[in-house]
Design a protein that fits this description.
This protein has 550 residues and is of the alpha+beta class. The protein has 14 helices and 24 strands.
Length: 550
């Protein structure tokens, strides 16, 4: 059965902040020129926002530019930041509060809002559709299409109704080809098509390796007497410090007597016994956090990798016929712990470059170098450049010395210290052998503050069509047992926050089991596997989590 095709001026892959902002800006540009552009957005989630997971404290700079009247239009920014608190957890009981004067300036949150980025994206999709954009949720972009000259032609959505054996089932429907003059890839961190494009066009040849963290987040209803709307708490130290790992936690008081709590674990950790999920569950028992959560109820759970390499790890974002934007390129500003406004701005800059070309009669397929020029002239480039040392300083110098360096760089030099630090080691290459690493025995969850993986995945509303090919592909099926298990005690069992990977005893000895139904699409396995043997590809459209209010 052949695939049908549709033609558009612009196809956008991913209905996140970057993609939807690009879609809106494209139509705004067309309307200003009194011209027509055809734009569509494809989204693999069952609905817009279903796969969006972020902290999140949001800076409104990009939104102010995109929709200056966003307040009047009812954008879901309901909780202004009222107070900032930065702490160090010294151990399982003690806390040190950092005086505000000693906190690096980018971490100050005056004028920002605590938001659900999923709800923001739902609102942005409404604005996009109102401007004439076609938004298609439930359709996973599975393949990049190319012209004969090698330029990007568009994408093909995944086939539906393919069985686990790879055969056409009774409900089989072939994917659709979406052709475009320009295709914008905004899939989020470690996008599987973006990964292919970076390799094919060697977009990262002049960049440092990208670095990642895994963010695990829960939404809690808490005792109204403990609720402080607008309070933002960031911290680091225990429990990650016990194993030499780095990262940090967040606790944000939103509206409706709710808080969001989460832990970001840097994926450059070296101890293969470490479990980011269990570190997070353990962390919630610290008095700094438990006093807020006790008496409350956990109502949602999710996990997602974040790209935190910053300016030094940015790839080239243009290629013939396409652009790579937002967290797909790694525009998150980790010094601010924020990526929504930067993703939005990258999408808006791309939209302006694409619209300028198309409205001038461009037939597509070119490498739009004008975007690179616009990016370098923007506040986005300046902001990321000023934060270029933040991550490398923390990785190379540690929490205290790295923090001191960043305080001097940001508060004294405004991010323009005449020195650029680099972190050139890949995260997956940092693991030490299991027999050279102290084993970590995690306490059993109490079902009150801490929980197991399966009950957590249940709260993510994750579902996949059962009879479909596994979307977690092994390049060599023997490596997990023959290499990863004896060398690293098969760390996939622990770095996955959803219980996807298990080593089980079979008739012939240990076997590697993949429970793909559990996958929350965090991409950690694609990043951290020490053999780089796992490739995450899209499952059937609409599969995965359905995050509410996350």
């Amino acid at each position: 059965m052949s695939r049908e095709s549709m033609e558009f001026d612009v196809v956008i892959v991913g209905a996140g902040p970057a993609g939807l902002s690009a879609a809106c800006r494209l139509m705004q540009q067309a309307q200003a020129a009194e011209r027509e552009l055809t734009v569509c957005v494809v989204e693999k989630g069952s609905e817009v926002g279903a796969h969006i997971l972020s902290g999140a404290v949001m800076e409104t700079r990009a939104l102010d530019e995109l929709f200056p009247d966003w307040k009047e239009q009812g954008a879901p920014l309901n909780t202004a930041v009222t107070a900032d608190r930065v702490v160090m957890l010294k151990d399982a009981e003690r806390t040190t509060v950092l005086p505000n004067a000693f906190v690096p300036k980018p971490m100050h949150n005056d004028g920002n809002y605590i938001v659900s980025v999923g709800n923001l994206c739902r609102w942005l999709a409404e604005q996009a559709e109102g401007l004439g954009v076609e938004v298609f949720p439930g359709f996973a972009a599975a393949e990049v299409l190319y012209h004969e000259d090698g330029s990007v032609k568009g994408i093909a959505t995944g086939d539906m109704g393919v069985t686990a054996a790879g055969e056409q089932g009774p409900n089989y429907m072939p994917g659709m080809e979406l052709h475009a003059k320009y295709t914008l890839f905004t899939e989020g961190c470690r996008g599987h098509l973006g990964k292919q494009l970076i390799s094919r066009f060697k977009l990262d040849r002049d960049a440092d390796p990208q670095h990642y963290g895994i963010g695990i987040k829960e939404l809690w209803d808490i005792d109204p007497a403990k609720h402080q709307p607008g309070l933002v708490v960031h911290g680091s130290g225990w429990p990650l410090s016990e194993s030499g790992a780095s990262g940090g936690f967040f606790l944000y008081h939103t509206d409706d007597n709710q808080v969001v709590v989460g832990l970001i674990t840097d994926l450059n950790y070296s101890n293969p016994w470490l479990s980011p999920f269990d570190e997070f569950q353990r962390m919630k028992h610290h008095p700094e956090i438990s006093r807020v959560l006790e008496g409350g109820k956990r109502v949602a759970y999710g996990a997602r990798a974040i790209a935190k390499g910053g300016f030094n790890a940015l790839p080239k974002m243009t290629m013939p016929g396409a652009l790579l934007l937002g967290c797909d390129a790694g525009t998150l500003n980790f010094s601010k712990i924020k990526g929504t406004h930067t993703a939005m701005k990258s999408g808006m800059l791309a939209a302006e470059s694409v619209a300028e070309a198309l409205l001038a009669g461009d037939e597509g397929g070119r490498d739009l170098s004008g975007y690179s020029d616009a990016f370098k002239a923007s506040w986005l480039y300046d902001e990321l450049y000023r934060s270029r040392n933040f991550g490398p300083a923390m990785h190379k110098l540690g929490t205290w010395l790295g923090g001191a360096f960043n305080y001097i760089d940001q508060n004294w030099f405004g991010g323009r210290i005449p020195l650029t630090l680099h972190d050139t080691e890949h995260d997956h290459a940092q693991l030490k052998p299991a027999d050279q690493s102290p084993k970590i025995d995690y306490p059993k969850p109490d079902g009150v503050l801490s929980f197991d993986k399966l009950s957590s995945v249940f709260l993510s509303n994750t579902n996949h069509e059962e009879d479909q090919p596994c979307h977690l592909q092994l390049k060599d099926a023997s490596i997990p047992i023959s290499h990863n298990l004896p060398t690293y005690a098969e760390p996939a069992q622990r770095y996955c926050p959803a219980g996807v990977y298990e080593v089980v005893e079979g008739e012939g000895g240990p076997q590697f089991q993949i429970n793909a139904q559990n996958c929350v699409h965090c991409k950690t396995c694609d990043i951290k596997d020490p053999a780089q043997n796992i490739t995450w590809v899209v499952p059937e459209g609409a599969g995965g989590p359905t995050y509410p209010n996350m």
